[in-house]
Structures are given as C-alpha cells and as structure tokens.
Amino acid sequence: MRGKIALLVGLMAASFALSLMAGKLWIPPSGWFGHDTNAAILFELRLPRAVLGLAIGAVLGLSGAVLQGYLRNPLADPGVVGVSSSAALGAVTAIVLGIASNPLVVFVCAMAAAGGSMALLAALTWRQASAVQFILAGTVLASLSGALTAFVISIAPNPYAVAEVIDWLMGALTDRGMDDVLVALPFLLLGAVVLAATGPSLDALSLGEDTARSLGIRLGRVQALVVLGTGLTVGASVAVTGVVGFVGLIVPHLLRPLFGARPSALLLPSALGGAALVLIADSMCRLIPGAGEVRLGVAMALIGAPFFLWLLLKGRVAWN
After folding, report:
1. Cα–Cα–Cα angle for 97, 182, 60, rounded to 5 degrees
2. Whole-angstrom Cα distance, residue 86 to residue 74?
3. Which of 62, 219, 222, 317 could form a disulfide with 271 if both were Cys (CB 3.0 to 4.6 A apart)?
4. Structural Rg of the chain based on CA atoms
5. Each residue of 188-216: pLDDT tens digit?
6. How far apart are the first and last CA of the chain?
7. Where does the chain have alpha helices with state H?
8. Tens digits of per-residue pLDDT, 140-175?
9. How far is CA 21 from CA 14, 38, 115, 295, 298, in A?
10. Beta-carbon contacts of residue 23 (< 8 Å; ≥ 6 apart)
C-alpha cells in the first residue's frame, strides 16, 4: 500500500512540474530561477494556476470518494448533492447583474449560494439520515439550481453577459492568480479535513446502516460532516474556477481496483489521483494547437465521457 501511495505522490509531483513547464512557451526547469521573462511567467501565471489545480483536483477526488462511500454508490459524485449547481447559480447571478468586475464578488456570491444549498439540504434530510433521502434531496436541489441558472441566463441584459456566463460555466484555471489561491485555499483545506474525518464511519456504513448504528456510528453526524465538507470543497472549487466535472467520478473508479473497495483506504489515493488528473488535463489544455486554450471543464468532459462509455462496454460498472 505504501509503495502505491508513493507512486501516486510521484505522479502528482511530476504533474505539478509539467504544469509549470507546459504552455505555448515551454519553460524547462533550467529557466525557473532566472531573472528574465520566463521566470516572470512561471511565478506570476503558472505557479498560482498549478497550486490551484493541485488543490481543486485533490478536493474533488476526495469528495467523490467520500460520497461514493457514504451513498454506497459508485456513480455518485459531488454534483449529486446540488452544491456545484448552486454555486454556479450564485456566480452566474453576479455576472448577469453586472457586479462581477471584482473576482472576489463572484467568489462570495458562489459561496453564499453553496452555503444556502447546504442549509437547505440539511433541512430536507435532518429528520432521517438516509442515503436514499440524501440523493433525492440533492437531485431536487441540483435540478432547481439548474433551472434557475437557465432562467437567469435567459433574462441577461445583453449578449456579452451571456457570453461571459457561458465562458465561466465551462470551467478554467486560465488567468487565475495568487489572490484566487489565497481566497479559496482556506475553504478547500477546511473542507478536506472535514471529509477526511469521515473515513472510519464510512467503513462501518459499508456493512449497512443497521450494523453501523450497532457499532455506535451516529449517522446524523456523518451526514452533517459529508454535507459540510462537500459544500466547502466543491463550493469553493466552483466559485474560483467554474464547473469542472467528472474528477470525483473518474478517480475513485480508476483507483478502486488498486486500493480496494474499503472507503477509508480510498480517500488519500483519490485526493492524490484527483490532483494529478486535473494538473495533467490543464497542461494538455495549454498544449493543444491554436491561439486559445480548451477550457478545463470541456477537457474533463472529453476524458470522462469516453471513460464511462468504455466501462459500460466492458460491463464493469459494478460495486464490489
């Protein structure tokens, strides 16, 4: 197990280095510490982007593994609780209202919407800590947020606002600076700590809710931790980059055959794997020929959809 973890750490470190080097201008390690244009590009543009990609990929992979363990469903991902849709609604509303000139305003609006979604999800499920009720409430919130987002876009005052909204919804790390990192990182770290604390409870839940209760697991507390941790991590991720899907869905699937199906054993590998996946995908976005960049959310969709089609054809979508 330690050897596999070490390999993932190495992969993540190599992906981080690739993220610093890759782009229209390739910057090798020998040019990282000079006093020329390359060093300015590295420290002002690529380093914040790489740190943000590492942090967001890690929390998305971690939250996906936690939700799949809590819901005992291999097809669960952070989108199932409606937090990402709600955060997107908050950011889109800020853009359409014309108050998004300061990125901090977009972040605050997105986190406020994510917090409201978390509160509503807790209110809908507090009477009964059940996975089925949790999924139903999350589905309702995701659908409602998606419908309200479409409504807000439809009443946008001009096509420029619509274009800005669409560009933001596709998700990207482009032009993110150290200010974005400093704003998002506390929420991402706090949420990751909360999610990591659910590991032993998730192991007990894999034996069934009745068995978990008999072992002294308080299902209401576990559900509250899952809601809080997912809200903080996914809400902050969407608030700073836009919607980036499939990470929490793909990474646990890829790593489960290597690390086993025990939920707590999958949390750290999923965080490391998620960070590596996002860093590699973001680097590939910059290397594709053309004047612009492919958006990270689009790239993840192009990776995720064929991956699950392959799983479907292989008949491997099964919970072991």
Report:
1. 80
2. 23
3. 62
4. 20
5. 999 999 999 998 889 888 888 888 888 88
6. 19
7. 2-21, 37-41, 47-71, 83-96, 103-125, 131-154, 159-169, 178-196, 199-205, 209-214, 219-241, 247-259, 263-287, 296-314
8. 888 899 899 999 999 888 888 888 888 888 888 888
9. 11, 10, 37, 18, 22
10. 41, 46, 286, 287
Single-letter residue type at 184? A
3-state secondary structure of 97: coil
Angle between helices 47-71 and 219-241 (to 10 degrees): 150
User: Which amino acid is it at 81?
Assistant: V
User: What predicted TM-score, i.e. pTM, was given to this entire model?
Assistant: 0.90
CB of 209 closer than 8 Å to CB of 219:
yes
Q: Are 303 and 283 in contact (CB under 8 A)?
A: no
Residue type, 200: P
Cβ atoms of residues 149 and 92 within 8 Å: yes
Residue pair 208/219 in contact by the 8 Å Cβ criterion: no
Using alpha carbons, select from 73, 92, 93, 80 the residue that is nearest to residue 121.
80
- Residue by residue, DSSP assigns 209-266 as HHHHHHTT--HHHHHHHHHHHHHHHHHHHHHHH----SHHHHHHHHHHHHH-S-HHHH
Nearest alpha-carbon partner for 238 in 114, 86, 89, 84: 84
**Scanning the structure block, which residue is given the tokens 């300061």?**
102
Q: Is the Cβ–Cβ distance between 138 and 82 less than 8 Å?
A: yes
Angle (CA) 102 103 107, round 5°? 125
CA distances to 184, 250, 257, 314 from 303, in Å:
26, 9, 19, 17
